[in-house]
């Protein structure tokens, strides 16, 4: 088992990076104040948003190692592990916005956190900022830090949360821009997704493994399920699950034409445990049952 340094509190992380903890549940960390450190794996039990201002390669997540460009944002949800253990040393750079889940409990931000799906993207799906976007992000970081440097009063929490929510809403817009500017790369992923589904249903995988999940497809494409879902939705207007369903129905229609196969056999071949579930899905999508479709054609 590899060694992992775990941070449970904001103060622990502030102390680790030679920053003063201005608030027990939220902070802006200047990583350049940290001492030279060895490459290590870290687990954060709070939300972390890294802002990399220089080109560096000190973060690794899962199987992905990424050499960041200037002006990159990386989002981590509580419990995620990032980094790698190796003997070399490096000097941390950039900033990190950190906030504990307890800080946003019962707030509008807490209720919306599941909408910010990029907290579960892989590191190589980071957000690359343009120069104007960087300036906007720096401005929000500065406002949050300014609030934390004041004496804490009844307005502190609402103002900090409002700025974090503003920050995340900007990131939604910036990711939309990134999806558009990376259309060629996205189209390649979509093409590989379609091929993956074709190969899956035209092999014995469906019968052996069942219906393909979005998580399975994302793993085969070496991207996170959230990124796959958001990217495909932006590019096609349909979710990956809808694509899987439509591909399944398309192949089912071809096989229904074969009179030597029963509807139950076709259902099992396509990965259904129960033929009635196949018939229900088929009717929901086409408006008719598999048996009626066979008779119609």
TrEMBL record:
<keyword id="KW-0805">Transcription regulation</keyword>
<keyword id="KW-0238">DNA-binding</keyword>
<dbReference type="Pfam" id="PF12833">
    <property type="entry name" value="HTH_18"/>
</dbReference>
<dbReference type="InterPro" id="IPR009057">
    <property type="entry name" value="Homeodomain-like_sf"/>
</dbReference>
<dbReference type="InterPro" id="IPR020449">
    <property type="entry name" value="Tscrpt_reg_AraC-type_HTH"/>
</dbReference>
<dbReference type="GO" id="GO:0043565">
    <property type="term" value="F:sequence-specific DNA binding"/>
</dbReference>
<keyword id="KW-0804">Transcription</keyword>
<protein>
    <submittedName>
        <fullName>DNA-binding domain-containing protein, AraC-type</fullName>
    </submittedName>
</protein>
<dbReference type="InterPro" id="IPR018060">
    <property type="entry name" value="HTH_AraC"/>
</dbReference>
<feature type="domain" description="HTH araC/xylS-type">
    <location>
        <begin position="195"/>
        <end position="296"/>
    </location>
</feature>
<dbReference type="GO" id="GO:0003700">
    <property type="term" value="F:DNA-binding transcription factor activity"/>
</dbReference>
